[in-house]
Amino acid sequence: MRPANRRRPVRNLSPLLAVFVLVPFVVESVWVFWPAAQGLYLSLTRWDGLTPPEFVGLANFAELAGDPIFRGALGNTVLWLVLFGGLSVLGGFGMALLLRRDRRGVGLYRAALFTPVVFSLVVTALVWRVFYQPDGLADQVLTAVGLEHLSRPWLADPDTALYAVILPALWRQIGYVMVLYLAGLKAIDPALYEAAKVDGAGGLAAAQERHPPAAARGQRGRALGDRHRLAALLRHRLGAHQGRAVPLVRVAEHLHVLGGVPEPAPRIRIGHRGGHLRARARRDPRLSGPCLPGGIMTRGLRTGAFHGSMALLSLLWLSPIIWVVLTSLRTFDDVAANGVGSLPRSFTFDTYRQAWSDGGQLQSLVNSFLVTVPAVALSLLLAAMAAFALSRYRVPFRRTLLLVMLAGNLLPPQILLIPVSKFAELTGTYDTLAALVAVHVAFGLGFYTFVLHGFMRELPGAIQEAATIDGAGVAQVFWRIVLPLTRPALAALGALSFTWIFNDLLWAITVLRTDTKMPVTPALLGLQGQFVSSWNVIAAGTIIAAVPTLLVFLRFQRHFISGLAIGAVK
């Protein structure tokens, strides 16, 4: 049966609902599905970009299959997927397990591990190029520990290039995977963790509990987890609902306690109606906290060890960023004489002036905001319109439409680059910021609509029905009822989409050609070419490009986490 609080889709439709669905679908079709069809057709032709395409069927694929360079690249891709995918999943899951509990300081550790996620690929690449430079931080660390013979051109050596690239990719990805796992772990009933401890899980952590001298404690401290065991058993049986009756007549769970501990009288109250047991377990004051014989670490020491190790890990995680900041404050003579990886011997802010004015960072930042702000607003508005119609009304083929729109996000952008560029030329929008805005809006609609649809369909139907009875139409219900209730999901998606669009590189260099129109991320590539040997200026430009997204993340950190959680659990 359908739960009482779930809404039933409204039957009556209106022309406005058709507009709510068709406008986003047409936008995505024009800029995503039509270029995808063109890309598929071009893959079956022989075309030089000037003469008309000649249909050749699968000949292009057969030629690629016999190309040794392509086969080698395919093998490298498989190796990349295995190493990068496996290590990112394991690392993210491990971090999520360590930081799943909400206690003091955990939020800072999560933020430190997640910070690289908000950086663009170009910023990440420049940060780690400073790390891998000859006499850079990597070589300096090896020299400090006596392994200078291992130093090499990390990115130029074929034996180490792939692994050197995997490391910064993991640095940027593990925080993202951690947040996804945190969203899943928080949905697990805490009673299951406690029940697992009862069954013997977490023995290493339990073994680190302090075991006081038997004479001082009268051996009452040797009870093996009686406090947690009783709570876990009862919560597991009762479904974590305090006061819920258990249909067990005059039956009690017995706990095994090690010898030397006086057994207290049970304090589980037995009800009068039907003899049901109720969850009113209490721990006897004579029993100590859970511990094992031979334990040597108190809870305070264990907490200190946790915070110390996580603080060290967070510092190491942020060290590439800290090193780039230090490099950006050095003079050119200092970097040239002592190397990128040496400690600073000078201090100046002139590098930021050079990157800001001479490097054109001011204009590129303005271009980024001119693209990001309207793209975020339009994509969320159109996605909210489509999600509202598909979730609150019985639109024909609504599930098919939702899945088709979501499928647009599954297409690899590489097959769309040439068709999107040609379509922009055909419409006269090539080399304009409007074309870049349209591309970002179209490619974000599927995911945003899917997330908002899952959020809106859980809203109570009684609110919409009451507004309809009071005379509210479709537009009024959307603007005044549903949209305000969807504010948490909109804030989360807005924070995420701002970062994704602001950090974009691929679509910017696809539909734009003029340097003065480039956003900040592709402009960094031009800055690197302009100041090819001035790593201090390049580092300053990297920091300038990362500041907006970093500020948005710090201000809306909770929305980043919740946005990824919404996408993970819906």
Topology, please?
Layout: H1 15-42, E1 45-46, E2 54-55, H2 59-65, H3 68-98, H4 106-114, H5 121-132, H6 137-144, H7 161-186, H8 190-198, H9 203-207, H10 214-217, H11 226-238, H12 299-328, H13 332-338, H14 350-358, H15 361-392, H16 398-407, H17 417-426, H18 433-456, H19 461-469, H20 474-485, H21 487-502, H22 506-511, H23 520-530, H24 535-555, H25 557-569
Antiparallel strand pairs: 1-2
Helix pairs in contact: 1-15, 1-17, 1-18, 3-7, 5-7, 5-12, 5-24, 7-25, 8-11, 12-24, 14-24, 15-18, 15-21, 15-23, 16-18, 18-21, 19-20, 21-25, 23-24
Structural write-up:
The protein is mostly helical and 570 residues long. The protein has two domains: 425 residues, MetI-like (MetI-like fold), CATH 1.10.3720.10; 88 residues, no CATH class. 64% of the residues lie in helices and 1% in strands. The chain is built from 25 helices and two strands. Strands 1-2 form a two-stranded antiparallel ribbon. Helix 23 runs antiparallel to helix 24. The longest helix is centred in the middle third of the chain and has 32 residues. The two termini are 21 Å apart. The N terminus is likely disordered.
